[in-house]
Amino acid sequence: VQLVESGGGLVQPGGSLRLSCAASGFAFSRYRMSWYRQAPGKERELVAALGSAGGSTVYADSVKGRFTISRDNANNTVALQMNSLKPEDTAVYFCNARLGFVNYWGQGTQVTVSS
Q1: Strands (E), 25-101
Q2: Are strands 45-50 and 32-38 parallel, antiparallel or unpaired?
Q3: Which of 30, 37, 60, 115 has the fewest Cβ atoms within 10 Å of its own Cβ atom?
Q4: Which helix (H) or strand (E) element contains residue 17?
Q5: How many angstroms separate the CA atoms of 13 and 15, rounded?
């Protein structure tokens, strides 16, 4: 099983980034896919989640209207489009796949929002 995130980096406030997560080794289309983030000294928090068929979307209040989660079940990928980025969005972003009690995590990708 692998979840490999990409697309992180340094961006100025107000800028955009698109994170991608490539999945392999499990039945991707059956899993609920999510993005979490963890800032230094803080707990990991849910950013956005998407059901197996593309419905049941959930966003953290802090990113509503700015971030969009999407998935491509044909290519086993999930993306997070992040617009209007703020310094408080700085964190390591993790891809997560969940089905019942089964949970898979990626290694994370750093997003830094700074001028």
Answers
A1: 32-38, 45-50, 58-59, 67-72, 77-82, 91-99
A2: antiparallel
A3: 115
A4: strand 17-24
A5: 5
**Segment 63-70 long-range contacts (CB within 8 Å, at least 24 positions apart):** 63/89, 69/33, 69/34, 69/35
Query: What value does the mean pLDDT of the chain take?
Result: 96
Tokens of 101: 């009690």
Confidence of residue 56 (pLDDT cuts 50, 70, 90): confident
CB count within 10 Å of CB 114 equals 10
Q: Hey, CA dihedral for 51, 95, 14, 89, is it positive or negative? A: positive
Q: Residue 53 has what pLDDT?
A: 80
Reference 9, options 108, 111, 83, 89; nearest CA is 111
User: Which position has the token pair 């980025």?
Assistant: 85
* Spatial separation of the C-alpha atoms in residues 113 and 97, rounded to whole Å: 26
